[in-house]
Amino acid sequence: MRYETTVAIDADVEEVWRVLSAVGNWPDWTPTVLAARKCDDGPLRVGGRVELRQPGQPSRVWTVTELVPSRSFTWTSTAPGLRLTAGHRLRADGSGTLAGFDFTVEGALSPLARVAARTIRRFVDTEAHSLKSHCERQARPR
To answer: What is the pLDDT of residues 71-114, one digit of tens each?
Structure first.
């Protein structure tokens, strides 16, 4: 199962990256993350791990597998019979940013993801729109 969405954000790509890559702060701007704890020091990097607690889900550790600074990162988490992959991509679009999010479920138990497909879509969409709202509020002059 794979789901993806894209949202236009009226904020500079570097500002959006600053928010998106500060994964320990995700609970501050998205209701889909109740707690986030980086398992290592320093900025987000390949091999870096983050433990996320999400509503109705067991706590999961996500490992960054790909990262292009200021543009994208992908991380994975595994459970018996499952491999979860979430991608986060940013692209400058005029004076704003296009943010793409995707989520893939693979493995022997992946056919069961159909049961959770609605929740997965809702979480991915909520994260995209929450990032948009947060970054646009931050970008507004005060």
So the answer is: 999 999 998 999 999 999 999 999 899 999 999 999 998 887 77
Q: What is the rounded distance in angstroms from the CA atom of residue 129 to the CA atom of residue 114?
A: 23
In the sheet with 96-106, reading across from the earlier edge strand, the strands are: 2-9, 96-106, 82-93, 72-79, 60-68, 49-53, 35-38
Q: What angle do CA 19, 117, 59 make, to 5 degrees?
A: 55
Could you give the angle at the alpha carbon of 42 between the alpha carbons of 36 and 43, nearest 5°? 75
pTM above 0.85, yes or no: yes
Evaluate if residue 56 carries a pLDDT over 60.
Answer: yes
Task: Tell me the C-alpha distance between 15 and 110, whole Å.
Answer: 35
**Could you tell me the residue ranges of all domains in the chain?**
2-139
Closest CA to 123 of 56, 50, 44: 56
| Fold observed for domain 2-139 | Alpha-D-Glucose-1,6-Bisphosphate; Chain A, domain 4 (3.30.530)
Assigned token pair, 33: 């993350």
CB 128 within 8 A of CB 31: no
